[in-house]
Prior knowledge:
CATH superfamily of the largest domain: q2cbj1_9rhob like domain
Order of helices and strands: HHHHEHEEHHEEEHHEEEE
CATH architecture of the largest domain: Sandwich
Number of strands: 10
Radius of gyration: 22 Å
Number of helices: 9
CATH topology of the largest domain: Jelly Rolls
Structural class: alpha+beta
Shape: globular
Number of domains: 2
CATH class of the largest domain: Mainly Beta
Amino acid sequence: MITILKIFKYLVNFFSKYWFVEIFKIFSQRKRLYSFTLNVFGFQSFRTWIAYKIKEINQKKVIVDIPNDLKFLIDENGYIKFEKAIKDKKQFIDLRRECKHALDNHPNRNYVDDKDAGYIWVRLLSNELESYPAIRKFILSDLADLFFNLSIYNQCQKISFDEIEFNLHRVWTQKGYEKERNQELHTDIFHPSTKGWLFLDDINYNDGPLVFVPQSNRIDSWRLKFEYKSSLLSKKSSGSWRITKKDFNKKFNNEEYFVVKKNTMIVADTMGFHRRGDVDNNKPRDSIHFSVRKSPFIFY
């Protein structure tokens, strides 16, 4: 009898500690919960819902210096497009030349050679920017400041400018593959997340354009059901859920293809569904890529 009581106390102690840790993870930055039990009870959907409610509350407190029409676009459609983003033609030419040179020659390029895709990331350190005056000018420009303010508004969190990651980015599909994983419609995470791209070249339909599903950043009963189903069925996913064609057709009408001219900037809430478009010619897509993602569970 004493042995049974000891075993019982041990089990109670073990599970109380275990569940305390697991429930704490609900309010973490993790993209998904890996506890099957918590997902069965709908806690992944609960995280999505509570993040949206926090945004609703905080949006009443956030004061940012951006036009109301831009606020409406990021709320309504989930993205904003700025054509001829850099007004000074020579400034863009100098910026493009510096970016291309860094992507081709920077000694600390982060080169990722996946099975189906290749990537080059270059993150310039602050002490390097003196050698890249056009890039430095862009990072300190009104455009970068606009992205910063849009990020604060979209995520409704206190964000410092230093938290924005500015990278030079080149991506291409490997030979022999018609598609790679990021060419599947997906969401980055369960809460608002802001990314921007300044495209350095003209982007046609066969150049892997950014594709975004308008209004897919909204939280409604469909999205909560989708989060619930994905948390149970997408066991190998990191939490960047892929959407099936069947689920897409049930909810959405179209994808927006950003077939754009160089010097176009896109800002998007990547909680919405997006992908890299199809590629016919294995042409690399070059851009300045900037992003910031702040946990919704950091309260004001």
